[in-house]
Amino acid sequence: MDPNTWGDLATWVTATVTLGALVAAIVAVRRSGELLQIEQERDKARDKRDADLREAAERAEQADLVAAWPYDVEDFGPLSVQLTGSSLPVYDVELEFVGPSGVETEELGLLPPGTQLHDWPQWMHDGEGTLADFRVALSFRDTAGRVWRRNEYGVLRWTGITVYPQPITSTASMGTPAISTTGQPEAQDDQRE
After folding, report:
1. Which sequence ranges are marked TM in the entry (predicted)?
2. Sheet order of strands, 90-99 included
């Protein structure tokens, strides 16, 4: 056999280095594809988180303006329930007076824009403690139908409930509109008439 048939050492070294470079390039392309996918997934997660934060901020825009606190801290003056800066009312307003000796709930219903003053329950005047011992929580429904609760420490949370009052569709159903709390309007059954 002729020793030149298999080529010389330089040819073998060049072929080996070329093959190694080809394998390294293939590995680098696969790895960069994996890294690109990881970065795209991170971008999607960040975009979703940002969109969720924007949506939560938009959702809470009106609710952020509703609060209850003592208006006059001297001698249990009137309680101020304020819809500050909003030109829209809130509905199904319920105040919860929390004190050392108990809890009392008062339903207000509709709260128009502006400041509304309400008296403290009598038992809070008669009980022991100072005004600092008493707090007010409230729950309400905004104009989009979302039900909110601001606890006695002022923390606002969406309850996850959305109430859709149903429009009246005929004169035969002129009673109280049906309310759905499932997140979707309830279908009316016009065949019952």
Report:
1. 12-29
2. 102-111, 90-99, 135-141, 146-150, 156-162
Q: Which two three-digit tokens encode residue 83? A: 């819809």
Whether the CB-CB separation of 70 and 79 falls below 8 Å is answered with yes
Residue ranges with strand state E in the chain: 66-70, 79-83, 90-99, 102-111, 114-118, 135-141, 146-150, 156-162, 164-165, 179-180
CB atoms inside a 10 Å sphere around CB 72: 12
Q: Which residues contact 139 (CB under 8 A, 6 or more apart)?
A: 92, 93, 94, 96, 147, 148, 149, 150, 159
Say whether 176 sits in a helix, a strand or coil.
Answer: coil
Give me the DSSP letters along 59-92: HTTTGGGEEEEES-TTTT-PEEEEETT-SS-EEE
CA distance linking residue 166 with residue 44, whole number of Å: 37
End-to-end CA distance of the chain: 105
pLDDT band (50, 70, 90) for residue 58? confident
Distance, CA of 78 to CA of 62 (rounded, Å):
24
Residues 16-50 pLDDT 10s: 999 999 999 999 999 999 999 999 999 999 999 88
Residue in this structure with the two tokens 């949370």, named with its chain if needed:
157
In three-state secondary structure terms, 39 is helix
- Residue 91 confidence (pLDDT) above 80: yes
